[in-house]
Design brief:
This is Histidine phosphatase family protein. Pfam families: His_Phos_1 (PF00300), RVT_3 (PF13456). This protein has 12 helices and 11 strands. By secondary structure, the chain is of the alpha/beta class. Helix 6 runs parallel beside helix 7 and helix 10 packs across helix 11. The longest helix is centred in the middle third of the chain and has 23 residues. The protein is globular.
């Protein structure tokens, strides 16, 4: 199989908060087979570019590629890997050697320099990773571990999963399909709205754009102490399951067992035609940053889906990716997270269900 690897990396400062992005495409159709992106902490531009190349080659091997066309807007990396320029900087030699080891696993690898405007996908991933690295550096600098009670009011997120839909009841992948709440889901949403009334006055109700969430958010907004509009935030939408949409786990695994295994092993891997958990995490962090900016020190109901809420809780608990597969979130379950101005986080509850009607 022949693929194209597009890769990029950079840093905010040189060195500075750094990150990379890489995309693997089918050489024939241009379809995205895999994405990779990661923050690197403090690193140089060139080291981040090499990290992007390494990630792209690794992803190409994982999808079973035999021939690879590498396209980057880094003249230095392309010329060095093609053997036309010497690698003079000692810090880059181990990275180039690692890339060369990966290259030996393919039948052929070609290198091509492209202008930045033709590398926008990888460039966007790299910039999002740099944003995350910058935020992590600021948080680390600002936050001290302490049991001392905080006096500044937190921004409280009341995370609410939408109520049950027909696909939820059948345990089918429900991503971008815009299915409405089932009757039992409407009852669950009303019960969640009643529960939120006891958690203090709300400053805002924000929601994924899909109707199973806007319906749930509508009940919450109606029952709030003050009449509130539902603010739709596109970044809170569910993961795109691509070709697995509306399938059960067993059906998806039977259809493409290799893709399923790769997806379960890495949050950087997307379902065929879909979206990786790493990409979801990036946009969800962007949504939370916006909420904190607009509603600092207040309580906000955040109505979303399983994947975004799990990722918010993973980050809040500083947990690893295994957390995503070990946490269960019920329809209309409630979780509460406090975010403090100094970067501190307090998770107060996870998947409250005592308010839900019995089945």
């Amino acid at each position: 199989m022949k693929v194209v690897v597009e890769a990029d990396g950079g840093s905010r400062g040189n060195p500075g908060p750094a990150g990379f992005g890489a995309v693997v495409r089918d050489a024939g159709t241009g379809a995205v087979l895999a994405e990779r992106s990661e923050s690197l902490g403090i690193a140089t531009n060139n080291a981040a570019e090499y990290a992007g190349l390494i990630a792209g080659l690794t992803a190409a091997a994982e999808v079973g590629a035999t021939e690879v066309d590498v396209r980057m807007d880094s003249k230095l990396v392309i010329e060095q890997m093609a053997g036309r320029w010497q690698i003079k900087h000692p810090g880059l030699r181990p990275l180039a050697a690692k890339a060369a080891d990966l290259v030996r696993g393919f039948a052929s690898v070609r290198y091509q320099w492209i202008p930045r405007e033709r590398n926008q996908h990888a460039d966007r991933l790299a910039n999002e990773a740099m944003d995350a690295a910058t935020q992590a550096e600021l948080t680390e600098a600002a936050t001290e571990q302490s049991w001392e009670p905080r006096e500044d009011p937190p921004t409280r997120l009341i995370l609410v999963r939408h109520g049950e839909t027909p696909l939820t009841a059948e345990k089918r992948y429900s991503g971008r399909g815009d299915v409405p709440l089932a009757p039992v889901g409407e009852a669950q949403a009303r019960a969640a709205a009643e529960r939120l009334k006891s958690l203090g006055p709300l400053s805002a109700v924000v929601s994924s754009p899909l109707q199973r969430c806007t319906q749930t958010a509508g009940y919450i907004a109606e029952m709030a102490d003050a009449e509130l509009p539902v603010e739709v935030m596109p970044d809170l939408i569910e993961v795109d399951f691509g070709q697995w949409e509306a399938l059960t786990f067993a059906e998806a695994r039977e259809r493409d067992p290799a893709a399923m295994q790769a997806w379960l092993k890495s949050t950087a891997v997307a379902p065929p035609g879909g979206e990786s958990f790493q990409r979801v995490a990036q946009r969800v962090r962007r949504a939370i940053a916006q909420i904190r900016q607009q509603h600092a020190g207040h309580t906000v109901a955040v109505v979303s889906h399983v994947s975004p809420i799990k990722l918010i809780l993973r980050d809040a608990l500083a947990a690893g990716d295994a957390f995503l597969y070990r946490l269960y979130l019920d329809p209309a379950g409630i979780s509460v997270v406090d975010l403090y101005p100094d970067g501190g986080v307090a998770v107060r509850s996870v998947n409250e269900t005592g308010h839900l009607p019995s089945r």
